[in-house]
Amino acid sequence: MSEKRSSFTGKIGFVLAAAGSAVGLGNIWRFPYLAAKYGGGIFLLVYLILAVTFGFSLMVAEIAIGRKTGQSAIGAFKSLDKRFSFIGVICAVIPIMILPYYSVIGGWVMKYMVGFVTGNAANMANDAYFGSYIGKTFEPVVWFALFIGITALIVLFGVQKGVETVSKFMMPVLVVLTVFIAVYTICTMDGAMDGVIYYLKPDFSHFSIMTVVAAMGQLFYSMSLAMGIMITFGSYTKKDISIEASTRQIEWFDTGVAFLAGLMIIPAVFSFSGGDHAALKQGPGLMFVTLPKVFDKMPGGSFIGALFFVMVLLAALTSSISLMETIVSFLMDNLKLGRKRSCFAVLVFSLLLGLPSCFGYSIWSEVTVLGMQLLDFFDFASNSVLMPIVAFVTCILVGYILKPKAVIEEVEISGPFKSKRLFYVMIRYVAPVCILAILLSSVLNAFGIIKI
Ligand code: TRP
Q: Of 204, 329, 408, 434, which one has the greatest count of Cβ atoms within 10 A?
């Protein structure tokens, strides 16, 4: 690590870059389907509570660790305590697991975008369209390969500067479109109001441990936590930037986009299904089945739909680029591979690892791991197992080995730390205990040892 690290130009540069990585398919595709599946209002409530407590504390800790050590995850953990080096390695494995299936979904988005742009909107509104599309053997693979190929090209040419520029215009357009679609659905479609109530009003009878497991996995995923990425961002951050204020901004922005995405999708699901709750449990396909129907009803819907899917694609690309960049720089630093070779290696590996996720919906649809479809399995293994492990160990490291004071001092370099108390209690007591409980219950549940 002899090279001088570049740093963000200012506060806005840092917040934008972190938000660009955070806002992606996690917010628009994953959050709504989990909220629909795990109880609507109660999921939202649990998620919000976790975001302002856990999510906040973990993000502050990660950014502070990065800024304090000036290194990315592997180096940072090693320099803080040799015994914790292994966690840096797990941090590197997580994006390697996520990127392939993330790109499979990215491929779906691309297919839909091209469909809307080429005037195929009415067809896509058909109930059976999505199922028959992902059930094809080759086509989803082609779109997936295209998505990951574009990501690799951007990472290869190192044009990340372009990513910031794209984020700057994509995010506001995405937010405006989402609000517009949500308002349109709620105001014009029968039964949509029931969906709004389902989404906003916590119904404790829908609560189960799985609600918390899913909400926590989603929190890590959506805020790009527990995989070292915020440590890397922290290492680029200057000392005069307020870690606390930036974290709050990233967190609210990320949660805001997810919230709006839910408001756009869940009421529409209610309206089209006539309130049939079975429609809520669709899982990963929810957005792809629901939104084209909304666009089909809307005047000018094929244009709005095309614009919307272009924005979602850009959001997905900014995230996949950041995921791939993490892996590429890991290979460059640790295996001393050049940029070209690293990109190529990541591309080939991701293609291979993504194939099972694609085929899981077609020729390998009977193959399940622990009762899960292949894509769901990769999603589960990274979000509900590996990320909680990283988060737990980070809490132990910060809470007991370094002591919270180390992070608090780093935060206070740039001003008072208002939520110091909250941070202390979270990182030392509440977070590790809850994460451990949740990790155990989700693993035992997956292996069928307990039933939750
Ligand atoms: N937060 C991203 C999303 O919501 C996904 C993600 C998780 C990610 N970890 C990341 C993106 C690291 C970039 C870098 O879609």
A: 434
